[in-house]
Amino acid sequence: MKSDIDQLMFNNNVDALLVTGPAQHNPYMTYLTGGGHLTYADLIKKRGEKPILFYNPMEREEAAKTGLPTKNLSNYHYLELLKESNGDHIKAKAMRYQKMLIEVGLTSGNIIIYGNADAGESFAIFSELQNLMPKLILQGESSNAMLLQAMATKDNHEIQRMRKMGTITTEVVGLVADFLTSQQVKDDVLVTSDDKPITIGDVKNKINLWLAERGAENPEGTIFAIGHDAGIPHSSGNPQDYLRLGKTIVFDIFPCEAGGGYFYDFTRTWCLGYAPDEAISLYEDVHAVYQQVMNELHLNKRCEIYQDRTCDLFEARGHQTIRSNPNTLEGYVHSLGHGLGLHIHEKPWFGRSASDKDILAPGVVVTIEPGLYYPERNLGCRLEDTVWVKPDGKMEILSQYPLDLVLPMKRK
Amino acid sequence: MKSDIDQLMFNNNVDALLVTGPAQHNPYMTYLTGGGHLTYADLIKKRGEKPILFYNPMEREEAAKTGLPTKNLSNYHYLELLKESNGDHIKAKAMRYQKMLIEVGLTSGNIIIYGNADAGESFAIFSELQNLMPKLILQGESSNAMLLQAMATKDNHEIQRMRKMGTITTEVVGLVADFLTSQQVKDDVLVTSDDKPITIGDVKNKINLWLAERGAENPEGTIFAIGHDAGIPHSSGNPQDYLRLGKTIVFDIFPCEAGGGYFYDFTRTWCLGYAPDEAISLYEDVHAVYQQVMNELHLNKRCEIYQDRTCDLFEARGHQTIRSNPNTLEGYVHSLGHGLGLHIHEKPWFGRSASDKDILAPGVVVTIEPGLYYPERNLGCRLEDTVWVKPDGKMEILSQYPLDLVLPMKRK
Predict the structure, then answer these.
(1) pLDDT under 70: residue ranges of chain A
(2) Which of A28, A218, A263, A317 has the smallest number of Cβ neighbours within 10 A?
(3) Position B408 pLDDT exceeds 80
(4) Domains and CATH numbers, chain A
(5) What confidence tier does B30 reach under pLDDT thresholds 50, 70, 90?
(6) A83 touches chain B (CB under 8 A)
(7) No. of H helices and E strands in chain B?
(8) B61 - beta bridge partners?
(9) Which of residues 105-124 of B touch A (CB under 8 A)?
């Protein structure tokens, strides 16, 4: 939780955090500022102190809304720095950081840098800054970033927001199910009343619309993949594809609050009208593993053990897994889930990034999403729900929705 | 244009580009791959050769859809590299880049890095890679990035897509105008039929909905700011604010194709019902400068001269400008416009980032957006259209919409 940050900084011998970029769609900045329409800002948080927000003067009122102490970036006279550095923006930006850091009293110590930015520009600016301030130790982190450790556990306000996103998500999923099953069928293909085949593109447009109506957006798109594409875990589905009865559809939807806030993540696998035997058999294996793993989730256990357990269970049912064959494209080919919050993927990790800090701690929110994939047989199945590990150790799916495979068509 | 990249690389003595990150909402990667649902990828383009796309095996079919030569990231055995580096993901990622670069024959020369990523992680990984491969010169660029130079000039297909976004944008603006002027008024405040005041939040929800219906999204939000907020150029407007007659409303809308494609950018200033004299006077100054500058735009002229010209014109009308007073918060406080494309702001630049390469070259698309701001007087006005510099040198606003200040209310 946010209140853990100073302790985490102390434990990791970190003197300050430097966060850069916009306040929207930029999880670390959103987390520390609360969001808002800041197209570019910098933030410096010293250990034990409130973060200081450096804002563009055009955005001074948006910056003030955060309630943080603020400083105006124009105080550092960028144009003069640009002249001094002969028009080199990289050097001028590094010099501006130097002035900002000196002003807040940071001339030595460990600083971790965060925030969405251009990879090359960041490399160049912070290399230059490191040269300018050799007593600072500038660092960057990967998937086990310290700040992710704080973000992994959610407070009640965050849970409320995620639960609301869950409600929106399952409402929209229900609307999609209603829409599909209300259509007419011609030669096993869903068609409109004037005989026009309905496409995956049509369905996705409706999803975007229904999400927007509810104050949500889906910046990462939606997976709605049928047949062969359902057998490729991250195929988003071909917008031109028709909707055919009896084919597995993997529908994975992961919207966030409009403006780039908290995510929800949810998957169902559907067969319209009826399911062929091999789809039912695949579904039953996934469903059984989903139920088993859900029942076994336990407070403070390591996430990795559930990935192992899932491999055990699938292997016992005769499927290959990425554990039994790391290069397999068939069977169980991904990790069981991931933490969820302002990032669509964050700590705790279940897969290869997992460490002993990735546990089902009180307050974490994780997805549980076992799946099986057989692209050559045009088959795929995944079931996913988002689970909150409550402070009392109970597990709660943040928004319930039936797990059914077959969606019966309403018109005969 | 994309076809200029090799020549630009030659002129700048660049041997390769390395682009990282997702293919959506990541302009450089979108530009070189055409987009698609790739949540993480790397791309290496050597001068004179096609880009090679390195994909996550779960996304192999999405990668194949790009039509580029591809390589599977799992060929580089990340888990082994992670073991070798004692669990340090930064080192393991640098070692993976090293293997990828060696495989494509890049062991020396100048490489420019691009792509959305975490600033700190990028700094750390590429610093490590630079240590591992000292004969390479890894570079990053700022606002005058070489690839931005190619992206500045659009081909006909890109113009088509931007024009379509323009049509969607002005359609939605028209719907907003209709919605507002159809409401009832009570004590100068817009109210619904059951006397509930309409808020800016309500209007923004409708905008998101109408955009989604048309296959667009607005990842950066919308500016819809009334009264005092209209006087702050980048205040996005307070969602709780009511809509009052006779107050200036700055409505700046900048949506993009769903999934993170081409943007459009458009602003009108409205007064509902009537406009007070001081709003009319402000509007007339902005309108006159808008018309004058639009008329003076000329093929291959430097963009900077129009910023200067705008300052001349506003100063002649008695306003402060950022040229006459760099710290002013009143008058004309921003630059005249910017290039537009896969970025909401890109080359050519009109403001402080402008160089002699920022010209109205054939094929560029720019915004022209003069404005005046008086927050203490609760007044602001900006008019903005998106202009295509056609290959024949003619200027074309990509989607026309009336410039009117006053929107008469339909009910009396």
Answers:
(1) 412
(2) A317
(3) yes
(4) 2-149 (3.40.350.10), 153-407 (3.90.230.10)
(5) very high
(6) no
(7) 11, 22
(8) none
(9) 112-124
